[in-house]
Design goal:
The chain has helices at about 5-15, 20-30, 80-90, 95-100, 105-110, 115, 120-140; strands spanning about 55-65, 65-75, 95. It has a single domain, classed as Sufe protein. Chain: A. A hairpin with a 2-residue loop joins strand 1 (about 55-65) and strand 2 (about 65-75). Helices cover about 55% and strands about 15% of the residues. A three-stranded antiparallel beta sheet has the order 1-2-3. The two termini are about 30 Å apart. The chain contains seven helices and three strands.
């Protein structure tokens, strides 16, 4: 996945006229996710609270006195894979303290996702954000 910024993602969304095009774009983003190891599809990595099957693994990188969070994820649903890709743009390769400071709800609202996802998808998206932030919190504690 390229190092797309959230501002670039917002601009891309703004260029798309309707939600059908935006959904297709989200699905395309999901196709750019890095591969997810089969061994990581297990109960420990499964995100609870998602209707679809979702798995997220995190790893930490320590560099120049900073702790950077990296994560990968996968889902059995195309649209959810796209949502994982959006969360990677928001959270991946960021310092753990910065991850905790990101207001994901406000950022995602800028894309209109809060208005255009089903309640079940919105709940699943919130569960993925909680998992990512929990991993960052654990990194700060550990």
């Amino acid at each position: 996945m390229s190092a797309q910024t959230f501002s670039e993602l917002e601009a891309d969304f703004d260029l798309l006229d309707d939600w059908e095009d935006r959904y297709r774009y989200v699905i395309e983003l999901g196709r750019t996710l890095p591969s997810f190891a089969d061994r990581d599809r297990n109960d420990r990595t499964k995100v609870q609270g998602c209707v679809s099957q979702v798995w997220i693994t995190s790893r930490l990188e320590h560099s120049d006195g900073k702790t950077i969070l990296h994560f990968v994820g996968d889902s059995d649903a195309l649209i959810v894979r796209g949502l994982i890709a959006i969360l990677r743009i928001l959270f991946d390769a960021k310092e753990v303290g910065d991850v905790l400071g990101i207001d994901a709800g406000a950022k995602l609202a800028k894309l209109g996702l809060d208005e255009h996802l089903t309640p079940q998808r919105s709940n699943g998206l919130a569960a993925m954000v909680r998992r990512i932030k929990a991993d960052a919190t654990a990194a700060l504690a550990g």
